[in-house]
Design a protein that fits this description.
Oligomer: single chain
Helix content: 40-55%
Number of helices: 8
CATH topology of the largest domain: Conserved hypothetical protein from pyrococcus furiosus pfu- 392566-001, ParB domain
CATH superfamily of the largest domain: Conserved hypothetical protein from pyrococcus furiosus pfu- 392566-001, ParB domain
CATH class of the largest domain: Alpha Beta
Order of helices and strands: HEHEEHEHHHHH
Number of domains: 3
CATH architecture of the largest domain: Alpha-Beta Complex
Radius of gyration: 20 Å
Distance between the termini: 43 Å
Strand order of the largest sheet: 1-4-2-3
Largest sheet: 4 strands, mixed
Length: 190
């Protein structure tokens, strides 16, 4: 059975997913997915698919409208990978949308100290370049003390405030005002 999957996809595929393979180009988007990825994020997503293969199927309603996995589907199409595992579930439009919200939002929050300890282990394992690329894709970078492997990696917990702006000009005005007040400010576009 593995030969069948190799003909349809170059990505690793658990045997249990073989009956779920479908042509991703036949699936449908409602055009309203609030989850957007940068090109760097998409590149990292593709790298993950190449390395680990399919760990979760795409989830759609019975008609093939995405509930979860729309970004994975678009990345696969961009890389000429057209057969993906699809789990079609019976659900109302509202259930599909709340499912999408759950998959997009329920990700957990990282403990900064444990994150940095994990980064040190990755660097020690020779994966610094891969880690740096991943962090850049999500707008982060290695703290200097980890990057140079000197000093303490203890970072005090930070407390952040997100201020919604009505447009780019309002964002720039607030950024300039708070920076002039000596506050540490960074721009986050959601």
């Amino acid at each position: 059975m593995k030969k069948m999957s190799e003909k349809k996809t170059s990505l690793k595929l658990p045997e249990a997913f073989l009956p779920l393979l479908e042509d991703v180009r036949l699936l449908k988007s409602d055009g309203q997915n609030p989850n957007k990825m940068t090109d760097k994020m998409k590149s990292e997503l593709w790298r993950s698919l190449e390395e680990f293969g399919w760990t979760d199927p795409i989830i759609t309603d019975k008609t093939g409208v995405f509930c979860d996995g729309e970004q994975r589907a678009s990345v696969c199409i961009a890389h000429n990978e057209f057969f993906v595992p699809v789990l079609r579930l019976t659900m109302t439009d509202a259930q599909r949308r709340i499912g999408r919200q759950r998959y997009n939002k329920l990700r957990g929050k990282h403990n900064k100290l444990l994150d940095q300890e994990e980064w040190k282990r990755l660097i020690d394992a020779g994966e610094k370049k891969c880690l740096v690329v991943l962090l850049e894709a999500v707008g982060e970078k290695l703290p200097l003390e980890i990057d140079e492997r000197q000093g303490s990696t203890m970072v005090p917990e930070s407390y952040e405030l997100i201020i919604e702006c009505k447009d780019e000009a309002d964002q720039k005005e607030k950024f300039d005002r708070f920076t002039a007040m000596g506050l540490k400010v960074r721009i986050l576009n959601l």
